[in-house]
UniProtKB/TrEMBL annotation:
Gene3D superfamilies: Metal-dependent hydrolases (3.20.20.140). It comes from Vallitalea longa. Pathway: Amino-acid biosynthesis; L-histidine biosynthesis; L-histidine from 5-phospho-alpha-D-ribose 1-diphosphate: step 8/9. It catalyses: L-histidinol phosphate + H2O = L-histidinol + phosphate. This is Histidinol-phosphatase. It comes from the Bacteria. GO terms for biological process: L-histidine biosynthetic process. Residues 9-200 form the PHP domain.
Length: 271
């Protein structure tokens, strides 16, 4: 039996990202070799409350990204569709600056993430049972603030905090915060935005994607339709990882299509 799968990977990082390990050209070649039809290269751009950026998130960084991706498009466009994309972290912390970037640089797809509670990275929190509820709620408040007022296309890895909590052996299920999630979903759906299904959780010991099937079902029940699928690969090996499993999870959550983006316009693909 041929496994059903999806040939659009909408979340990956090249070595232009601070944490990427493979060049953009190698990422493209690997995606072609694996039979992908379309990829979005979503290098990071993080925002902080004033002045603590430890990496060169600036115009030179974005220019480097655009030079590299234009080169890849020239080289590989007969074999794969390559989308100009970005993963903006905490754009609600620098609303004006984020909007200026989105006006100056023409992306096909903008993925929005919360990696931090204010400037505190989720990976830096010392998780334990007495504080997990407080941090989970604070995390969802950040997500709401982002969803409420910012310019993006899809919200990335909606229950990301569970990844870091699990490293301290704390299990987090954000599905229990039904009111908070429904407010986030309402804002997304009202503004024609979507969420991504991020398969990195499947290969990082969580045994489920981000968000979980339970949260995907809540989004679907709330009327959510727009979803993208991404591996969040930071190297050539992880491109498209676990996309067969993801197909089944997407179907189980009640979706019959996924979405791609061109020039910030969504396009539906029937599964
Ligand atoms: Zn991320
Ligand atoms: Zn990412």
């Amino acid at each position: 039996m041929i496994m059903k799968r999806i040939y659009q990977d909408y979340h990956m990082h090249s070595s232009i990202s601070p944490d990427g390990n493979s060049s953009m050209e190698d990422m493209c070649r690997s995606a072609i070799d694996k039979g992908f039809k379309e990829i979005a290269i979503t290098d990071h751009y993080e925002f902080y409350i004033d002045g603590v950026a430890s990496y060169r998130f600036n115009e030179a960084y974005l220019d480097e990204y655009f030079i590299a991706i234009n080169k890849c498009k020239d080289k590989f466009s007969d074999r794969i569709i390559i989308k100009k994309a970005i993963e903006l972290g905490q754009q609600h912390l620098q609303h004006e600056k984020a909007n200026r970037i989105l006006e100056s640089y023409k992306f096909d797809f903008v993925l929005a993430s919360v990696h931090k509670i204010r400037n505190l990275d989720l990976s830096q929190i010392n998780y334990n049972h007495s504080i997990i509820d407080i941090y989970s709620k604070r995390y969802l408040e950040e997500v709401y603030e982002l969803a409420d007022n910012e310019d993006f296309d899809c919200l990335a890895h909606l229950d990301l905090i569970k990844r870091y909590a699990s490293k301290n052996n704390i299990k987090v299920n954000l599905a229990k915060y039904k009111d908070e999630l429904s407010q986030i979903f309402k804002r997304l759906i009202d503004k024609n935005k979507g969420i991504e299904i991020n398969t990195s959780g499947l290969r990082q010991g969580l045994n489920e994607p981000m968000p979980s099937l339970e949260i995907l079902k809540l989004y679907r029940a709330a009327g959510g339709e727009i979803i993208t699928l991404g591996s969040d690969s930071h190297n050539i090996q992880d491109i498209g990882r676990d996309f067969e499993k993801a197909y089944d999870i997407i179907k189980a959550a009640g979706f019959d299509s996924i979405y791609t983006f061109d020039n910030r316009e969504s396009k539906r693909i029937q599964l």
